[in-house]
Write the structure tokens for this entry.
Amino acid sequence: MGANKLAYWKAIIDRIKNAFSTWKARWLSLSGRLLQIKTGLSAIPNYYMSILKAAIGVIQQVEKIIRGFLWRHNMSEEKKISLISIQEMAHDKGGGGVGLHDLSKRNIAFGGKLVWKMVSKPDTKWCRIMQEKYLDSLNPSPVGTTLDPPKGSIVWNFMMSWRQVITRYVSWEVHNGESIQLWEDSWNGLPPLKLSELLLDAIPTI
């Protein structure tokens, strides 16, 4: 599949351009254009953004297309000045926005969702493949506790880049303690004790 670069997303950006073409904007009201944007953004980039990390340049290009489509005059090629930023439009109506999805946050959420599936459903086929290839096949918990996860496929790297979205809010139930890893697990949101031990070893003694 190659490196996850801006060029790889060209086909997706072209599809978005086609969905938000100028001639369509001419015949739609502002509300109609807004609905078209919501529909297009819910369908076109979702698959790719759910398994790949979108570059900043990709998100900026998509947002530029959205602005041009939304603020265009109905029956002319003239563009209006953007009256509100894409980021502010991402708020719900109660917060002064219109409910557009923030693409960068959606991308992060997709990555966190994959990590959560590995933690909560480690027996599914794709989770077992990832587990066998990159982690300890007998223990699914390292996906959230490994200090320095190995590099791998672009999908795996995408997951690892956003795993803190999940691990930041995960807690453990001790029960009989058999599955607890005292040194590798994070306690009370703090770094694992193993990391603290490494830091202490690095401090020179007087």
Q: What stands out?
A: The mean pLDDT is 76. DSSP finds twelve helices and no strands in the chain. The chain has two domains: 6-101, 106-180. The longest helix spans residues 103-120.
